[in-house]
Structure formats: structure tokens, C-alpha cells
Specification:
Helix content: 25-40%
Number of helices: 4
Structural class: alpha+beta
Radius of gyration: 21 Å
């Protein structure tokens, strides 16, 4: 009885470890089979918009954080700057409106594959909805709706499907979605440590 219990426990642990390793193996396969590597060039963008939320309130700091993460998720370079101002109740208090200034770089397809300023990139599927990526939520429809021009005109997106069905004073499930292939930089290889 004791031996069968131990065998069962060992078998369960082996199955768990094998199952846990599947995502890593699948990610490695996807990075190799993700399509051809293309040349990209960083393009500078500056934009300003006024957020006015009827359903969702954001603090200026919360708005900056969500927008910064969203831009990076779509392929913006890590040095993105987001500055929200004009929150009537203060920087960290939820408000209906704010003025948001953006300064960021995104990739556009490069004409010369051997150009000095080119970055290796790949067209990568991206998804934004109330459940993905982790920082988005059911109340973000108005923000996604107000950022449509900024996102669709300042990022290289193929097969873009951009949908918002915001209803004032209601938080609905599945009321926004962005699906596309975004031009994303390939990870830079880590330098060999010596």
C-alpha cells in the first residue's frame, strides 16, 4: 500500500513537471517559427489627447501607467514617456478627465535590410481586450476608444481589427478588442558573460 502511494505521487509529480515544461518548449518553437525576420526602423511619435471618462475614472498616475504598458505591449520602445496632467482632484485621485502627452518610438518596416539604423523585427500577433494583457480590465473601453487614432496611426499593424462598444455608465464584458500583427523588435541576444 505504501509503495503504490509513493509510485502514484512520483507519477503525479512527473506529469506535473512535464506539463509545466510545455509552455517553455512551445515558446521556443514559436520564436523559431514566428515568420521571417524583417528590418525595422524606429520612428519618433509625439501625441496629445484628452481623456474624458464617463464610466471609468483614472488618476493621472494610473492613466500614465496603463497607457505606458499598452504602448509597450504594442511594440513601443522601452523609453516611452507618458505624462498625464490636469486631473482636477490631484495626481493620485481618480478623475473623469486628464490631458495626456505621449512621446515614444515604434517600429516601421525598413526599406534597406542592411541600413545602419535598422533593427531586426518580426510581425507578431497582438491582442488587447478586457482580459489580455494582464493590466487591462473591463472598465478600459473608453480609454481604448479614445486612443484609436493614436494606436492605429503610430504603430505598424497588419490585419488590424479595432472594436469598441462602450456604453456610458455600464461596464460590459467583451466591449473592446484590438487584434493585429504588430512589428516587434526581436530580443537582443545576451552578451556572453566571461
Amino acid at each position: 500500500m505504501q509503495r503504490s502511494k509513493r509510485n502514484w505521487t512520483l507519477a503525479a509529480m512527473a506529469a506535473f513537471l512535464a506539463f509545466a515544461a510545455l509552455p517553455a518548449a512551445r515558446a521556443a518553437d514559436n520564436s523559431l517559427a514566428g515568420g521571417p525576420v524583417v528590418a525595422g526602423t524606429w520612428q519618433h511619435h509625439q501625441a496629445r489627447f484628452t481623456y474624458y471618462g464617463i464610466t471609468s475614472l483614472y488618476s493621472c498616475s494610473g492613466l500614465e501607467n496603463n497607457i505606458r504598458q499598452l504602448l509597450k505591449h504594442l511594440g513601443a520602445r522601452k523609453d516611452v514617456t507618458v505624462q498625464a496632467s490636469g486631473c482636477p482632484r490631484g495626481y493620485d485621485a481618480p478623475s473623469r478627465n486628464a490631458i495626456v502627452d505621449l512621446d515614444f518610438y515604434s517600429l516601421s518596416p525598413g526599406a534597406d535590410a542592411n541600413g545602419a539604423n535598422n533593427v531586426q523585427a518580426r510581425w507578431t500577433p497582438v491582442l488587447v481586450n478586457a482580459h489580455h494583457p494582464y493590466f487591462m480590465g473591463n472598465g478600459d473601453c473608453e480609454l481604448i476608444d479614445e486612443m484609436k487614432d493614436i494606436l492605429s496611426k503610430n504603430f505598424s499593424l497588419r490585419d488590424l481589427s479595432y472594436r469598441t462598444d462602450c456604453t456610458p455608465h455600464e461596464v460590459n464584458i467583451d466591449d473592446f478588442s484590438i487584434k493585429a500583427e504588430a512589428l516587434m523588435p526581436l530580443p537582443t541576444p545576451m552578451a556572453a558573460s566571461g
